[in-house]
Each structure stands twice: as C-alpha cells, then as structure tokens.
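Appendix C: a fully annotated inverse folding record. The material below is reproduced so that readers can follow the format used throughout the book. The structure is listed first as tokens, followed by the designed sequence.
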C-alpha cells in the first residue's frame, strides 16, 4: 500500500488579528517541533499570512490560504491571486469550503477555475467536498459528492493531480460538535478514493491525501486517523488554540 504522510491542517476561518495570529503561530511552532511523521499546515486570514510566514520560516509548519481567485491580477476588487499567495509564503490553498459555497456563491465551476489557477501558480489545492444534512437524509450523499468531484476536478491531468489534497467535510458536522462516525467517514473516503482511481488511475489515487473535517478534536483524532482512507484532518474551531491543535497533530497522544 502507498504510504501517505498524514496532513493536519488548521483552518482558522475569519479569526485572529495579525498580533493574535503571530502569537498562535509562535506557540504552535514550539509545540510541534518534535513531530516528524505528520505534516502540519495552518491557514490564517489573508491579512496575517506574511507575518505568520516569517514566524514559521525554517520550521516544518506550512502555510496555506483559505481561498484564491482564478485570475493572476487585474481589476477584481477584493480578490487575491495565486501568485500573491505564493509571494506571501503559501504552499497550500483551501478551495470550495462549504462556507464559501453557502455564503459566497462558490459553485463546482468556480472551484474548478480556482483549482486550475492554484496549480498554475504552484500551490497545492485542498479541495473541499461534502454533503448537507438534507442530502444525507435523502440518501443523496454519494451522488452529491460524485458531482462535486466530477465538476470540481474537470479537465485536470494525472500529472498535476499528484499534488492535490481532497477534504471531505460533511456540512452537518462542521462547527456542530457532531462528528461523522468512523463507519460513515471510511465509507465516504473509500468512495472518494475509488472516484480518484477511476478518473486518474491507481497510482495517483493511492498518493492523493483525503482529509476529514468536521468537529475534529483531540479526543476523536486517533480514531479518525486510524481509518484506512483517512490521511489527515482539516480542523476548524479546535485549530484556533495552539495547544489543542497540537494535541490533534499528535493524534490525541500528547
Ligand atoms: P470545525 O472543526 O470547527 O467543525 O470546522 C471544520 C472545518 O470547517 C474545517 O475547514
């Protein structure tokens, strides 16, 4: 079986001033300095990216952004491009988070444009997919995920996909304290892996990391990370506190 290095990513969402972000990053760097077999990444708000980049430079902690626009530059007030994110020190970018789909008109088509722009700019996209509670209740989980994957990854080549990360975030588990059960998580991750196999072949599908997100906490991290097709976590609320996030990075063991 392919060895995939787990990725534990912290999505800070719209939280933290520059000073707060730098403070959290400093604490996190010291708490995860012993970690070798896990990749750690944080996504502060745009405003704090460059300052956090300075703090985590020459540490194993990596930097990501929470969104990207698909054009490189131009008259697009309020938008931030992939080259700008790279210049601020990012290596990753989250794309298609359900909050962006819900509040900011993100669609599978805009996700696709953003994923292509991220790759073109040298960023690894963390592509988010997930069903709502209504979808799950109506037995539409797999058809919804299939559509999000199919449209979101449309036109991408096998070579480029080697650097992609997929994040499964059931909308009903985000910020609710309701974690999907290990059975539900593994079932969906296996489905996503088989989608990737069919689309991109066994080799690449075996390399792509599929993260779980939705109320991940120190107390449930070990159980979730032990699942065969779970290769890390995308953590919201519990990533805002460096000590709690560090416990998740240590799979609840420290
Ligand atoms: P919570 O961990 O707060 O449920 O958020 C998950 C999430 O949306 C990460 O992107």
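Designed amino acids, in order:
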């Amino acid at each position: 079986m392919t060895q995939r290095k787990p990725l534990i990513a912290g999505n800070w969402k719209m939280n933290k001033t520059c000073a707060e972000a730098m403070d959290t990053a400093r604490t996190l760097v010291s708490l995860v300095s012993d970690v070798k077999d896990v990749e750690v990444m944080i996504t502060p708000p745009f405003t704090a990216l460059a300052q956090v980049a300075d703090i985590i430079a020459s540490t194993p902690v990596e930097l990501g952004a929470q969104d990207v626009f698909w054009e490189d530059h131009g008259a697009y007030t309020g938008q931030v491009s992939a080259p700008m994110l790279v210049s601020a020190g990012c290596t990753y970018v989250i794309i298609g988070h359900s909050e962006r789909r819900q509040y900011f008109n993100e669609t599978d088509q805009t996700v696709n444009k953003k994923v292509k722009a991220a790759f073109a700019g040298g960023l690894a996209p963390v592509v988010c997919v997930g069903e709502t509670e209504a979808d799950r209740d109506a037995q539409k989980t797999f058809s919804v995920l299939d559509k999000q994957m199919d449209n979101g990854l449309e036109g991408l080549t096998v070579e480029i996909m080697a650097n992609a990360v997929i994040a499964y975030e059931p909308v009903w588990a985000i910020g609710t304290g309701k974690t999907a059960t290990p059975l539900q998580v593994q079932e969906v991750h296996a489905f996503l892996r088989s989608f990737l196999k069919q689309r991109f072949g066994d080799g690449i599908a075996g390399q792509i990391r599929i993260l779980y997100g939705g109320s991940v906490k120190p107390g449930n991290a070990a159980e979730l990370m032990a699942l065969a097709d779970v290769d890390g976590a995308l953590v919201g609320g519990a990533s805002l506190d460096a000590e709690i996030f560090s416990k998740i990075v240590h799979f609840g063991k420290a």
